[in-house]
Amino acid sequence: xxxxxxxxxAAEPVVDGRRLRSEASRLxxxxxxxxxxxxxxxxxxxxxxxxxxxxxxRTVFRLFEDMDGLYRGMQAVMTARLGGLLEAPVEASNWRExxxxxxxxxxxxxxxxxxxxxxxxxxRTRSAALRExxxxxxxxxxxxxxxxxxxEVQADPELVQALYLALSFEAWRxxxxxxxxxxxxxxxxxxxxxxxxxxxxx
Length: 202
Fold this sequence. Notes:
The chain has helices at residues 17-38, 46-53, 57-63, 67-86, 95-121, 128-146, 151-154, 157-166, 169-178, 183-198. It is an all-alpha fold.
C-alpha cells in the first residue's frame, strides 16, 4: 500500500518586524506633530517632535524625507479621526433639521481642526500637500451641504453659495479667532445665519 503523499505545510507569513516598527514610529511622529500644533506650537521644531514621539531625531528625518510627507501623514490621521463627523450621512426628518445636525457636527470637527489649519496657513503656499488637503476639505464641505439641500434650494445658486460660506471652516475660524466668540456662540451664529438665509422656505 502506497503511503499517502504528505503535502508541505504552508509557510507562515514572515512578519517584517523592521517595517512594523517603522510604521509605528511614523504614526508616533505624526501624532506628536498633531499634539504639539494643537497645543499652539505653530511650527514645532524637529527636536520637539522627536522628543514627544519618543524617537531619535535621525528617525524623524529617515521616515519623513520632507515636510510634505509629514503633512500628508497628519492629514491621513485627521481624516480618519474626523471622518465620522464630516462625511457620515445626515439622518433627519427634514432638510432644516439636517442643517442643524450638520452645524453641530462641523462645530465639533472645526474646533479640532482650528489650530492645525492656523499652523498650515504659514507654509501652505509652498506645500503641495497642504494645498491638496485644503482642497479636499473645501470640496467635502460643499458635497455634504448639497447632499441635504432639497432641489428647490439648490435651484438658487446664490443661496447655495451663501450657505456654503456661512457654514464653512473659514466662518468658524473668523468667529473663534478674530471675533472672540466661544464655541456655543459660534455654533449659534452659524445656525442664525442658516436660518436667516433660508427664511420661510419649506
